[in-house]
Amino acid sequence: MSSFMKIIATLFVSALSLSAGVYEDLEYGDTKQVVTDKLMACDRVETTVPQTMFGRVGMNGTFRIKKKLNGVQFSLFFDWNENQQLKEITLRSDAIEPDSFDSKLSDTFKNANRLITEVYGPAVMSNPMPTSDQVDDGTILNSHLWHVAGGTLLLGVAKEQGQLHLSIRFLEKHIDPVRKQ
Q1: Could you give the dihedral angle defined by the CA atoms of residues 30, 13, 71 and 119, in that order, rounded to the nearest 10 degrees?
Q2: Are 105 and 96 in contact (CB under 8 A)?
Q3: How many Å apart are CA 82 and CA 9, to the nearest integer?
């Protein structure tokens, strides 16, 4: 079973299910059309726009996980290699107001970290959750890193236009943790 499927199953379905892909049966290297077709057939995700609009609005944020974590909705975002093949999938929470940082975002972060650790074991890099003032607008500050089959899993906090998001990223690329001197 792939890393992305394990975390999705744990976070949003509450039970691990066997699958052979990064998410459901998505694989790194899939084309955009293959990703679209597979996600349209997946009963754990839904679209936010009609499929006929994908060409106009793109795929990022158009698929979201049906189950919420701590009442927080997550959408799927993708990155592609130079051949337009899948190389990254990110689960990004809906915006959370900075004044809800200590309650909603913090609780969701702790639950996500706990569940990821249950599935993959301890992170190879683990730091305290970033505070809202540590995260610059337009960036993601990852505090946890796991090596998972086929790549890397990162957990962090993102900020976009002053709004905070929990970010769970699955990358095909292997990333080594930053070593403290």
Answers
A1: -80
A2: yes
A3: 30
The contacts of residue 116 (CB under 8 Å, 6+ apart) are 7, 10, 123, 144, 146, 153, 155, 168
Contact present, 6 and 151 (Cβ < 8 Å):
no
Torsion angle defined by CA atoms of residues 27, 125, 97 and 14, in that order, rounded to the nearest 10 degrees: 50
- Reading the chain (181 residues) residue by residue, the pLDDT tens digits are 455 555 554 444 332 233 345 666 788 999 999 999 999 998 989 998 888 888 888 889 999 999 888 888 999 999 999 999 999 999 999 998 877 777 788 889 999 999 889 888 999 999 999 988 899 999 999 999 999 877 899 999 999 998 999 999 999 999 998 776 6
* Structure tokens that stand for 97 in this block: 């107001």
Q: Phi/psi of residue 5, each to 5°?
A: -65, -40
| Residue 153 structure tokens | 């899993």
